[in-house]
Design brief:
single chain; 185 residues; alpha+beta; six-stranded antiparallel sheet; 32% strand
């Protein structure tokens, strides 16, 4: 009987571990192969940092610097940071359908839209989505597209939204330049 309880416990822990891993994996977007765009683009940013590479990158951040220490704290719970960004000399030099296909993935269960901006005049779209399991954020996606450029950012893993802005401008994550409201005003 004791052996049966032990087997049941191991099976339960294993199931919870794999369920959590699968949930984090769901936050990973399937990005189209944009390799053909590199020759057309005048600027290309392609960052793919899995959990192992994030650990290595965190070691290069100076723990004595307040911003770097905060970035290290945010990175500690992440499974990956993936950025694809392309800028072009000509308008609509990229297949908009590929970018829209990534947006469609964000309609899957678990993803929640935080921000949507559409500018018909500028033909610019920005979407920010968060994946959560109800109480914890475990994925973030940002898709920004304009006639001459597009950027896709996918952050996978445990995300502390209060501290996330500290990654802006680091590890290839663009500065969003969103104003923070002063709580005292």
């Amino acid at each position: 009987m004791r052996q049966l309880k032990r087997v049941f416990f191991v099976a339960l822990v294993g199931t919870l571990f794999f369920a959590r891993s699968a949930l984090a994996a769901d936050a990973l977007l399937r990005l189209p192969n944009f390799d053909a765009l590199e020759s057309k683009a005048n600027k290309v940013v392609n960052i793919s940092l899995d959990e192992k590479l994030l650990g290595i990158a965190a070691r290069f951040l100076d723990p004595g610097d307040a911003e770097n220490a905060a970035a290290r704290a945010v990175i500690s719970g992440l499974k990956g940071i993936y950025v694809k960004s392309y800028a072009f000399d000509a308008e609509f030099a990229y297949p908009k359908a590929d970018v829209d296909a990534v947006r469609k993935q964000l309609a899957a269960p678990g993803w929640q839209k935080l921000l949507e901006v559409r500018s018909r005049k500028d033909h610019a779209d920005v979407d920010i989505y968060l994946m959560s399991d109800g109480t914890k954020a475990n994925g973030l996606a940002i898709i920004a597209s304009e006639p001459r450029e597009f950027t896709i950012v996918n952050i996978v893993g445990a995300i502390d939204l209060q501290k996330l802005h500290q990654l802006e401008g680091q590890l290839g994550i663009p500065k969003l330049q969103l104003e923070q409201k002063d709580a005292h005003k």
